[in-house]
Write a structure and sequence with these properties.
The chain is mainly alpha-helical. It is 44% helix and 8% strand. It is built from 4 helices and 4 strands. A two-stranded antiparallel ribbon has the order 1-4. The longest helix has 13 residues. The radius of gyration is 14 Å and the shape is globular. The relative contact order is 0.22.
Length: 97
């Protein structure tokens, strides 16, 4: 499992670099407002730029990505984990470069 920021525009290169022939891909995309609040509330983290946060959010929001990969509804962490697991178990998160 890789937990980090990998835009869909990098998925093919990511798969090639890791040697994987398929990936399961999930994008957690809360609202821009929520992202800005989370970034502003961080302590001890190097990324705090609200303008960069807006740009990154827009890049993901505008990406050519199938909705089955995106989780954007606000929900508590356990419910989100269940939703991700359900889609993963159903094969809905599978991405083939």
């Amino acid at each position: 499992m890789y937990d980090g920021v990998v835009g869909p525009w990098y998925l093919t290169a990511f798969a090639t670099a890791t040697g994987l022939d398929h990936l399961s891909y999930a994008v957690l995309l809360p609202s821009e407002r929520e992202c800005l609040q989370r970034v502003a509330g961080r302590s001890g983290h190097g990324f705090t730029d609200p303008d960069a946060t807006r740009r990154m959010h827009r890049q993901f929001a505008d990406a050519d990505l199938e909705p089955r990969h995106v989780f954007s509804e606000p929900t508590e962490p356990a419910a989100l984990a269940r939703a991700i697991r359900q889609r993963w178990e159903a094969g809905a998160l599978r991405y083939r470069p």
